[in-house]
Amino acid sequence: MKGKAMPNNVIQHWSDGKPFAGTTTDTAPVTNPATGAVTGQVALASVADGQHVIDSAAAAFPAWRDTSLAKRTQILFAFRELLNTRKPELAKIITAEHGKVLSDALGEISRGQEVVEFACGMPHLLKGGMTENASTKVDVSAIRQPLGPIAIIAPFNFPAMVPMWFFPIAIAAGNSVVLKPSEKDPSAALWMAELWAEAGLPAGVFNVLQGDKTAVDELLTNPKIKAISFVGSTPVAQYVYATGTSHGKRVQALGGAKNHMVVLPDADLDLAADAAVNAGFGSAGERCMAISAVVAVGGVGDELVSKIADRARTIKTGDGTRDADMGPLVTKVHRDKVASYVDAGERDGATLVLDGRVVDADGGADGFWLGPTLLDNVATDMSVYTDEIFGPVLSVVRVGTYDEALRLINSNQYGNGTAIFTNDGGAARRFQNEVEVGMIGINVPIPVPMAYYSFGGWKNSLFGDMHAHGTEGVQFFTRGKVVTTRWLDPSHGGLELGFPQNN
Length: 503
Ligand code: NAD
Description:
Blueprint lengths: L9 E2 L1 E3 L2 E3 L6 E5 L6 E6 L3 H19 L3 H30 L3 H18 L2 H4 L3 E7 L2 E9 L2 E5 L7 H12 L3 E5 L6 H13 L6 E3 L4 H9 L5 E5 L2 H13 L3 E5 L4 E5 L5 H13 L9 E7 L3 H12 L19 H16 L3 E4 L18 E4 L6 H4 L6 E7 L2 H9 L3 E2 L1 E5 L3 H10 L4 E4 L15 E2 L2 E2 L6 H7 L1 E8 L18
Helix pairs in contact: 1-7, 2-3, 2-6, 3-5, 7-8, 9-10
């Protein structure tokens, strides 16, 4: 909606500790995926709006950097307590705009909360090093300092957890933040901004900029922004990394995925089938760690496919606020795109075991429904295998040996997550050593690391050197300084133009 009067239900930006309407009337519709209804309009920032919000973060930074660690962590603890008490409110907001079922929305908040809890330990994490008498009467210390205003650009699929991978650590370390949520589910970010204000965070330390490419481009090029944490599809991650770094910023850009689950002949096939269904269809497959390709090794295919199909048939697809296992897809456009991959798989000769295009969903007639879909005998040149689909479509690829399975994964452009199901410790150990993927599960289908480890893939699943949260997150949001100190001592005066040497 361009150039029309701003409607009342517009979802705004947040800066200087309060809502900011922005200067344009450009908006995009936000829908409830379970009904298809337009429930609001989100503001789309102009360049001037972007500058206004970035200025708010820049103005707040110096005082926040100088706020004691004790005070900063008190505010973090307060945010954690409020979040823990009030997370059902946030879960409802997520379900209403994303579509995932309420229990899943609560799950993502809890995983984000773990990062808040990790960041409450920032005083310990920021401890530097000190060497006394490195040279005669010379001491050396290493400290880490915050970067300045940083930007987080988030995808639609985890409107609370993904921003929380970054902002608790960035804020605890003394940075100020501009969060640019996905325009598909923008309200969770505003709810979290209000919670920060309630927790006592000074105005301007946490800001929200709503918008599309215009907002992103302002964040990537504005010299006041010092670092970018991006999560989204690979082509946009590549663009963000190239543009941000060419403007002198530190960038970590997490991209797309195609996660394989290898099932060896000795595996417990019931456990493997449960895992494939949970990891393939949870959140309607809209997870970057979802399993989308099951690699059945050495003759387990028939039994495994039959067990997966039996379980998948029991999944209730419906409105996430009701008694459903799996919700709708995020938008009609995305639903139709995922369905078109199923069309293509069928055309290309895959065996359609379960067809989610025909689904009796417990929800609105205009909801963006697609049921669990299972394709067997998928070949590696089919688009259903080569592309990231990001929907409830599980492909089974049959191979003869472990080596073939490994080659398949290692030749894939993505390297986010993978899993192996086996009772053979030697095979599992070999897999974790040989597979070129950032996060590995052994009899665990979605191996999302705990907050105190770092999250990130390899190859086209991550651009940059540092992964999200854990100690790499602390490193990303701080930079090192080494201070060499000598207090005045008359015996050490005099001119010496040679390169400093230790003695
Ligand atoms: P997306 O790339 O479409 O959007 C991500 C963000 O980039 C949004 O804020 C969006 O507004 C912005 N954006 C979109 N197009 C842009 C453009 N041309 N220029 C500048 N900015 C642009 O991703 P999505 O559809 O919101 O999310 C799904 C994708 O995210 C999937 O590919 C999924 O694998 C990936 N993802 C990856 C991880 C991970 O940890 N690797 C985690 C979650 C999601």
